[in-house]
Amino acid sequence: MNAPLVHKSLLLLATLALLLAGIAHAAAVEEPSTPLPATNSDPDAAMSGKDIYERVLDNRFDAYIEEIKMHSGDRGGNVQDTEMEIKYLNFRDQSKRILSKAIMKYFAPQDVRHLGYLVINKEDGSEDQFVYRPSSRRVQRINLRGEAIFGTDFSFEDIIPQELEDATYLRMSDGDVNGTPVYVVEVTPKEEQDSEYSKFDVYASRDTFVALRVLYWDQDGLKIKELNSVPDSIKMYEHEEKGVLKQIWIAEEQKIVHLKLESWTELYVTKYDPVVTLKSRHFSERELTKGR
Question: Is domain 51-288 annotated with CATH 1.20.1070.10?
Fold first, then answer.
């Protein structure tokens, strides 16, 4: 073979080798931008983080009254009991602007008895928040984000019923909590939420979508809290909504630990009542001033 033909053949082979290498590299680094489609063997493979967390939030009724007790302690041996009532009403069918309203009132300790908060969660992601202090007998607008529940390791952000629009969601690799298979979702609160957390990871049961564990990071990126639900306390409730029987699951015992302060709080749901008739008038500033 003469020299020009050899040269052309070698050039062709080199070009082909580069082309094949480029294709192989692209196949190695390129990832699908959307979840893989579900298969018969893994029917929920296509669920996004948002889909999963929506199921977590769906573990509640459109209206309910909940009473909780909290037992708190610290490394110094100090303990305290706190009692609260939470009323919640879904407004999605009543308003294009308001998603939900919630009222929280202290029953104990005596120092804060009848102190109450009203939170109005709006479609644009913002919230109207109000406090009623019996000492002043006045209702004032405040920012509850980051404010601790009196004497506990829970902040109001931890127990105020959340809405799906409050954050963005990223599905992480599935895992398990003490042998129970879970979905793992990284939740990043939106900027308008003015959250005390930069993110929190939710470990939700694959069967009930109850959050078995939640890990919280502060705005400096440090993990500061860990919440765990007591598996034996998870209870199913049934109630008819809009002509359909709905079942939800609730963990009636949880424990949260503040990793930096080395303090802890145990939370007990002592009453959960979905068989209630709550109206818009039950979530007013006037209602906030009423006693138990």
Answer: no
